[in-house]
Amino acid sequence: MKHGIYYSYWEHEWSAKFGPHIEKVAKLGFDVIEVAAHHINDYSDAELAAIRQSAIDNNIILTAGIGPSKSKNLASADASVRAAGKAFFEKTLTNVAKLDIKTIGGALHSYWPVDYSQPVDKEGDRARGVEGIHGISDFANNLGINLCIEVLNRFENHVLNTAAEGVAFVKDVGKPNVKVMLDTFHMNIEEDSFGDAIRTAGPLLGHFHTGESNRRVPGKGRIPWHEIGLALREINYQGTVVMEPFVKTGGTIGSDIRVWRDLTDGADEAKMDEDARNSLAFSRFVLGG
Ligand SMILES: [Mn+2]
After folding, report:
1. Could you list the mean pLDDT of each consecutive 10-residue stretch along the chain, which spans 289 residues?
2. How far apart are CA 63 and CA 240, in angstroms?
3. Which residues are catalytic?
4. pLDDT (0 to 100) of residue 289
5. Cβ atoms of residues 47 and 77 within 8 Å
6. How far is the CA of 78 from the centre of ligand 1 (A)?
7. Among 70, 138, 153, 239, which residue's Cβ finds the most Cβ atoms within 10 Å?
8. What is the pLDDT of residue 247?
9. DSSP class of residue 161?
């Protein structure tokens, strides 16, 4: 099991450059940094090569996260949007591969955050999502990339809210590089049992996000980490565990994530680093790896 952190912990904008965070994350003791793929097509090949070299130099594995915008939704009812989504993913995956990234996770099958001012067509969005993911899966596989379909809570997406729904979706896609992704923040809202959800995903679990119910770093709240660790051991999970804390107000991240109060008690960067380091030690102990 490899442990990581999403670099947006230290940022206010999704478009913030992730390269400068690699060395810091390595110094904090992490194995993995998760980066945002939304804007990776804006990076030059030279920038991507420098980032890849920095990851090698710091012995850090990169994973990618993405919540596609509405205009790139692979499950849109509008065929031209679906086509734009496919083109976007092919370009994005090509650039993601330049960083030796083997795992991309998020609402790949849909878009984020969902616009609930419009009528919801769960059945149609799901069917088009299966087709859309199926349609990019071989392209990703040829680049050595696993597509990890993140199960989100009801307030952020309607297509997949539980591990059981995620497993059924991934089985319908039926490709070996398409996996289920779970996140304790979302599970806390939707699942009856953390352990049962993880066991339901079983061998199809491809990526795992952690965070407390208020998105603080693991260890500061009331998520049942011991139960989660037992379940991960039970399914012999060997993949990546990436903490995804969002604790500061401000910027597009603060607004999109609905962070309306400082969840760090006024921590400066040094204290935030210390919180991440302590949470990593906690996560390695209780979850394994
Ligand atoms: Mn997540």
Report:
1. 97 93 98 96 97 98 96 98 98 98 98 94 98 98 98 97 98 98 98 98 98 98 98 98 97 96 96 98 95
2. 9
3. 150, 244
4. 80
5. no
6. 27
7. 239
8. 97
9. -
Instruction: Give the helix/strand (H/E) hosting 279.
Output: helix 269-287
Torsion angles phi and psi, residue 131, rounded to 5: -65, -40
Distance 67 CA to ligand 1 centre (A): 10
Backbone phi, psi, residue 243, to 5°: -75, 140
Residue ranges and CATH numbers for the domains of the chain are 2-287 (3.20.20.150)
| Tokens coding 66 | 């993405």
**Type of residue at 119:** P
Using alpha carbons, list the distances in angstroms from residue 182 to 85, 101, 145.
Answer: 23, 19, 18
Whether the ω angle into residue 224 lies within 30 degrees of 0, i.e. cis, is no
**Ligand 1 center to residue 8 CA distance, Å?**
12
Report the alpha-carbon distance of residue 65 to residue 275 in Å, rounded: 22
- At 246, list the tokens: 């969002």
